[in-house]
Design goal:
By secondary structure, this protein is α/β, with parallel strands linked by helices. It folds into three domains: 88 residues; 143 residues, Cupredoxins -  blue copper proteins (Immunoglobulin-like, Sandwich), CATH 2.60.40; 27 residues, no CATH class. The protein is 41% helix and 20% strand. The chain has eight helices and eleven strands. Helix 2 packs antiparallel against helix 3. It is elongated. The termini are far apart. Bound molecules: copper (II) ion. Copper (II) ion (CU) binds next to loops. It is found in: Cell membrane; Membrane. It comes from Crocosphaera watsonii WH 8501. This is Cytochrome c oxidase subunit 2. Its main location: membrane.
């Protein structure tokens, strides 16, 4: 019994489609998605992966099939048939990629717009540069952002890229740190700037990347929805130690974030005298030594004993 070739074509088409649809969702190439918007980027990537898998299987399949089916047989020295172009075929293979590219362009545009890429909503009160330069600058603001709302305002963080580190300043609390902390489910707005050369702020798990340009502020907003530690990577060759320009984004629970904030707030001037300044002259030897002794694995009594032994020793 001979199966008609159009039925075989149909079956092959169905199999390729099913395999492509499955692989488009199960390629495992992306790191975890740690924000709401990251899913939109993943949807585009998965869609592209589905199309790419289908095309790969179709084209490679035809090549492998042809290599076997139309191979030169033993003793065959004849020429192949003289085929010169095929207009319908060329129209087809121009039209299909054109349609695919158009669909991808529209889909990408839609996601970019959803994420606030076309009109970043910038909180003006913390972007003095923007106000100084007026409306024109606002219209061409760099970045992505829209996640803040009236009842869930964004946490502001000034991000400065320098050779070869990221410095994060929280203007509301005065915290300055080398590692970014963000509470889960709260919008965060990064005001990104560079101190020397062009850097790029990149967190793969947020699917966000933004150039940091000296003298020109850029913005990124995100709302992390997954606790964890994620790498911050400089994605613009910025000098000899560019490869070492890394930091960490800690997405904390609300409680852990509050704790971190409390522990890292600069000491207020009012209680500065008691907490920050201790004059070692007013301390006894054991008092002075105990923090060092603890590091060495000694307890308080051992220190006191030592101090007694050497009581006549001028310290
Ligand atoms: Cu850099």
């Amino acid at each position: 019994m001979k199966i008609p070739s159009n039925i075989i074509t149909l079956l092959v088409g169905i199999v390729i489609t099913l395999v492509s649809l499955w692989y488009g969702q199960n390629h495992g190439l992306l790191p975890v998605a740690a924000s709401e918007d990251a899913q939109q980027v993943d949807n585009i990537f998965n869609f592209m992966m589905t199309i790419a898998t289908g095309l790969f299987l179709l084209i490679e399949g035809v090549i492998v099939y042809s290599v076997i089916k139309f191979r030169r047989r033993k003793g065959d020295t004849s020429d192949g048939p003289p085929i010169e172009g095929n207009v319908p075929l060329e129209i087809l293979w121009t039209a299909i990629p054109t349609v695919i590219v158009f669909i991808l362009a529209l889909y990408t545009f839609e996601a970019y717009n959803n994420m606030g890429g076309l009109d970043p909503v910038i909180s003006k009160d913390t972007a003095p540069q923007q106000i100084a330069m007026g409306d024109q600058q606002h219209r061409i603001a760099l970045g992505i952002g829209k996640s803040a709302t009236e009842d869930n305002p964004a946490i502001m963080v000034d991000v400065k890229g320098i050779q070869y580190a990221w410095i994060f300043t929280y203007p509301e609390t005065g915290i300055i740190t080398g590692e970014l902390h963000a509470p889960i489910n709260r919008p965060v707005q990064l005001n990104i700037d560079a101190g020397d050369v062009i850097h790029a702020f990149w967190v793969p798990q947020l699917r966000l990347k933004q150039d940091a340009i000296p003298g020109r502020e850029a913005f990124l907003s995100f709302t992390a929805n997954r606790e964890g530690d994620y790498p911050i990577i400089c994605a613009e060759l910025c000098g000899a130690y560019h490869g070492g320009m890394k930091s960490v984004l800690h997405v904390d629970s609300a409680e852990a974030y509050a704790e971190w904030e409390q522990a890292n707030k600069p000491v207020q001037e009012a209680n500065m005298g008691e907490t920050a300044l201790v004059d070692p002259k007013n301390m006894s030897d054991p008092e002075f030594l105990s923090p060092y002794a603890e590091e060495m694995g000694m307890n308080h009594n051992m220190v006191a004993e030592l101090a007694n032994h050497n009581s006549d020793h001028a310290f």
